[in-house]
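Quick one - first record:
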Amino acid sequence: MIECGSLEYAQARIGARHGERLREADWHRIEVLRELRPLLEFARSTALRPWLAGIDADSSVHRLEAALRDRWRTVVGEVASWMPARWRPALAWWSVLPDLAPLQHLARDEEPAAWMRDDDAWRELCASAPEARAARLAGGPLAALAAAWPAPETLAQVWQAEWRRRWPEQRRDTGDMLEHLASVLLDHERRFSVATSGQGWLQRTSLRARLALLLRRATLDPAAAFIHLALCALDLERLRAELVRRVVFARWAVA
């Protein structure tokens, strides 16, 4: 029997989940559905079903995004539970990825969005005076990201530095694969930051292909868990875009 919390168990679970991911033909079927209700009906017949918990045809953009953030954190926790305990702190750090964009928004001294003022995770930070937010961030669970507050454009690099800090000190020959993944992610972030309008999905498609190749090379390597999460994040981002588009389209149609 394969023991839960071992690399062998994690590899088996990751392989099963990777095999369930939607193919391009499935995504195309989603893309051609113009209304949210039929989109949800079809998506719930696929491996996307768990991502749609708490979302229905009447959901607002803020409600569906909150549900997707919650689901992302559930997925990260699930993947972490498959892995040996020494890898769980590094995996848990991936749960904060949805927080990077709101943090960058605030660090640029932008006015908090309405949903941020209503969200339990952001209410206190948004209620603070702009000049006090960096100190409040430094005293909370996202303290490692406070270093990026004076330079919001460095947030991705600061996040990755903390991720690296959480790697186990002794990694049983996994350094090269993790370093390769880290390099791929940073390269994508740099390319994406200078992409012109219309290039975003091409950049994501390129990243998806690079990650799929890495995953095939990462058998029984701890890096496979992180590669799997990166692919999940791309799928989640794609699903979010399709859902938001339908909600906004419905509003335009009514208007």
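second record:
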Amino acid sequence: MQLEKSLSEHSVEAYSRDIDKLTQYLQSVNRLVKPGELELKDLESFVKWVADLGMTASSQARIISGIRQFYRYCLLEQVSANDPTILLEAPTTKRSLPDVLSFEEIERIINAIDLSSMEGGRNKAILETMYSCGLRVSEVINLHISNLYLDVGFIRVIGKGNKERLVPIGSSAIKYLNIYRKDIRAHIDIKPGNEDIVFLNRRGSRLSRVMIFYIIKDLAQRAGITKNISPHTFRHSFATHLVEGGADLRAVQEMLGHESITTTEIYTHINREFLRDTLHMYHPAFKT
């Protein structure tokens, strides 16, 4: 997983837990066999066992995905000659859409930042960058100075699976990134190993994912926004505003760094007014 698929340590641990659960089940039913000896009925019984533990459909589907990945490896390494997961059905999961912020709400959150503090200047640069580029929280905290090409309006982002992509960055985000680097970051005593990291805490180390979460939660509360807000809300809003503004879905896919366009579709929360306007513009029955 780490060497061939370049997955993060967190992802590798998650897949390992899936195999641990399968092992626990096989031990509980005294079915201690080699991977190549497992049959579809064994895995179907395992899925039922997982469901009986009270896990949600999405958790069950994720575990099954982990088992499928394991058997792909077994086939590749000739540990098993067959793949019993081929006909294994995952439970249907509802693809619910998270809350999306309007542009006005995003401005309210950003305007709630106290710019009189060093952290305030940094936080403004963070939120402007997140909304301008649609970054994942992991991409924000790992953003490198050497990957900023602000003179031409692009940044290089290292996404999931260590995949790189170039993303355009807006003038407002460029402005506050430059202010942060010149007036705030330049005066921080940087810890060794963090010299190329853009966003630092007051101790000179990179920020944590949790810190970004708390920053956004606090600002949303100050702005009087009661929606369920997380760092991912900015990424979702970025994609939603692009699509509602008429952006091509393939372009949005490229900027978000999604392998499949079906994943991008999750972020295209389109309101009824936008749908109605689209029909009036393009459908012959609605044209006047």
